[in-house]
User: What shape does this take?
Amino acid sequence: MWGTRLLITAENTGLGDDRSPVGHGLRNLDHRLQCEAGIERILPPGETPDGRPGVSVLLFTVKSDDMTKRLLERIGQCILTCPTTACFNGLNEDAREQVDVGGQLRFFGDGYQMSKQINGRRYWRIPVMDGEFLVEETFGIKKAVGGGNLLILGRATRDTLLATEAAVVAMREVPGVILPFPGGIVRSGSKTGSKYKTLFASTNDAYCPTLRGFAPNTQLPPEAGCVLEIVIDGLDLPAVEEAMRRGIRAASAAGALQITAGNYGGNLG
Assistant: This one.
């Protein structure tokens, strides 16, 4: 996979809320679009380019060629539209290449847009109804790791949820990773393929407790009554490994019955 980092700032810290236009929109993901995104961490004013509160967002695509289109969609629909925001490139030294984003979004200004160059980096000022939307011209991208996962088994739903929530809290402390699903937890884990030709992925029957007596390849021990999944995307392998390490320790300490992972042959994640 390929990854990038966006630094998004605004007048208030509601920016990082999953219910905000930025938080909700960027966390939306679509397997057909091969794009996953999420908030890496909240940024205090002292760590942002314009001295305002902000968030660091990671976005991942399967192919580098897809990154420009996905960034144009996400920034154009979720950040440009959100009051008071600005958007900066957060991946510089580690970037393998640059993609043109602000240089294309500028056309929304309908000829009134203006460019600004600071310390060798070009920005575009796009007039909008609350003032200006400032966006950097290019964004760095790099090879990344997507689809890391943990499957956490428990005796009952409540026990499993508590163990998985503990893992999510621990994993979100690791820089360079996101848990792209809402809340970081997935109940509808997938396998590749389906009996229906139109489906790319379908329910992971091997880990569905209600299918224990029907699925031919169940992987559940007799005492397991619930399975929850955590999906991890990261800018590099060490970050994903560290997140998984912390998640396993936290879930174990919180009473998980068993912890495993799915392997989909590189076809899913």
